[in-house]
Amino acid sequence: MTGAGRGRGRTDRASVAGKVQDGPSQRMRRVAEDIRHRLSAVLARTEFRDPDLIGVHLTVAEVRMSPDLKHATVFVSRLGNVPTDPLLPALKRVGPFLRSAIGQGMRTKFVPNLHFQPDLALDEATRINRLLHSPEVARDLPPAPEPDEA
Prior knowledge:
ribosome biogenesis; cytoplasm; KH_dom-like_a/b; alpha+beta; ribosomal small subunit binding
């Protein structure tokens, strides 16, 4: 009995297609992108009273939603090479304000709880770039072709 216990005879799309769905659903991606845009706008135009956030410019790099759309993990970074970790407690303090600000135009049943994390993608990309340009890797690569003179 496919889809038993799911109500009204609905079946799980992943089981019907014969494959297991990997990653977020289309709805999760759409809601995450909407929240990212809304948070970016609020962070850009709002002057916070929290002393740790005064004059700080943050970038919302990514938002990941939980499957029930009740929790959003927000990955933030600062402009420049400044660590974001000290700002996480301040972002948690202003979280309820941010949640209400983004929820005013959202068309979802719930406004998700916001959980802030530092965005480490740039650090990881820098680390990989350094590894790729290290002498140990360079000796294993074929020599680059010479550019033709025309």
